[in-house]
Prior knowledge:
Strand content: 25-35%
Distance between the termini: 46 Å
Oligomer: single chain
Number of domains: 1
Mean pLDDT: 88
Number of strands: 5
CATH class: Alpha Beta
Largest sheet: 5 strands, mixed
CATH superfamily: RelE-like
CATH architecture: 2-Layer Sandwich
Strand order of the largest sheet: 1-5-4-3-2
Order of helices and strands: EHHEEEE
Low-confidence stretches: none
Amino acid sequence: MTVSKHRVIVEEFQFLDELSELEPDVIRADEFIEGAKFVLSRNPEYGEHIGKNVWFLPMWKADEGRSAVLYYTFDTERVFFLSIQLDTG
């Protein structure tokens, strides 16, 4: 039996502050980022590489009809959620 290794998600303070502004309801905020946690803990290269060690993942905030962008970095053990911003583009 093969056991796949998942990276640990680390939510940085800036990310947490921005997420609480984006979605003040803690349960809804957690639900909003659950998919990103699932995907990126298993395959952090799923997003787009935009800098030396920075990646981004576009996300859709369906209840508002707007998109957001999650910025993150990773190493062999962890994925660090750095920032989340509403997409102004």
